[in-house]
Amino acid sequence: MPDPSMPPLSVWPTGQRDPHAQLRDAGCVPGTEDDAERVPPAVAAYAIATYTRAGDLVVDPDCGAGTVLTAALHVGRHAVGLTPRSRWWTLARANVTAANNSGAWPHGTVLGARPPVLGTTRAAGLIGRVGLVLTCLRTDPFRPGDPDSDPAKSDFATILRYCESLLRSGGHLVVVARPRRRPDGELVDLTTPLIADAIAAGLVPVERCVALTAELRDRRLVTRASLAERRAAARARAAGSRAALVAHHDVLVFGLAHDAELAAEASAGFLWPADDEITLSAASDVAYSEWMRAVHSTDQSLASCAARQSRSARHGAFGIALFDDGQEAA
């Protein structure tokens, strides 16, 4: 019998086209394929269609070559991406420009910055306005030693804390994790620490999904593994270990903790105040009742939390503050 405390599991049929065909269909510029840790365009498109609506704002705090941004723009969502690497910044900007030239009307911007910039006052325009944070867990597949000690995994916990404050009520944070093996061929458990870090950041698991990278053909899965992956699996089998070809990415979907609390109260028959009962005049010196979202960041004031509620109702309007590097949303 399934555990009711665990998020539901679903399978996304996102492997019907091979990776290069996906990039071509999405209109991505040459060089995008070099971002091996990218969110596949089909996975990005599926997540955006499932968890957002037209006019929503999608943020990728570590966007790489910008496949998430391109997928968002093509379906009428605004997009903001961050990357600290100049190579990916150039490619992501080119992909945003290509999407605009092909007729995508929403705004898109790429910031040459690391995720901690989301925790500064210069990002205040994003607080409480993001419908979807969609990103991938970037690890170093060539890093020697134990993959569990990869510093990229610990850095991701910080990214989760910064992004939690961006979400509007009802928004989601989606993490795509590419399976990774240890030298002995055993798969690394990437999802358990991710769930723990997300809960610590004030998020709750909503859904755990499998995004297929293999094609569904009748009742068979046709893998699209690379030559290197096939050779590694063959060596493992020759050594007596069972190693199947990877045919999916793990996808973890999170929501806001206060949204879950409100839903639980609503199911118990408790009546919460309506939006028109929210007043901002008391923000400076009156404590709000417990219906208001809990503040998880120590440097976030009650005033900014109240303003966030007001902005959430107007999340369709897009805009962000200036950042250190002088870049601004288009």
Mean pLDDT: 79
Subunit arrangement of the protein? single chain
Low-confidence segments, ≥5 residues, pLDDT <50?
141-145, 278-330
How many angstroms separate the termini?
Answer: 51 Å
Q: N-to-C SSE series?
A: EHHEHEHEEHEHEEEHEHH
Radius of gyration from the alpha-carbon trace, in angstroms? 21 Å
Number of helices: 9
Q: Using DSSP, what is the number of strands? A: 10
Helix content: 25-40%
Structural class: alpha/beta
Order of strands across the main sheet:
1-7-10-6-5-2-3-4
* Overall spatial form: globular
Commentary on this structure:
The strands form 2 sheets. An 8-stranded mixed beta sheet has the order 1-7-10-6-5-2-3-4, with helices on both faces. By secondary structure, the protein is an alpha/beta fold. Helices cover 30% and strands 18% of the residues.
List keywords for this structure.
330 residues, alpha/beta, 8-stranded mixed sheet, two-stranded antiparallel ribbon, 9 helices, 18% strand, globular, disordered C terminus
Which SSEs are present, and which pair or pack?
Elements lengths: L8 E4 L6 H7 L15 H11 L5 E4 L6 H8 L3 E5 L3 H16 L6 E4 L18 E7 L14 H14 L2 E11 L13 H10 L2 E10 L2 E3 L2 E3 L4 H12 L9 E9 H11 L34 H11 L18
Please provide a brief summary of the model.
The protein contains nine helices and ten strands.
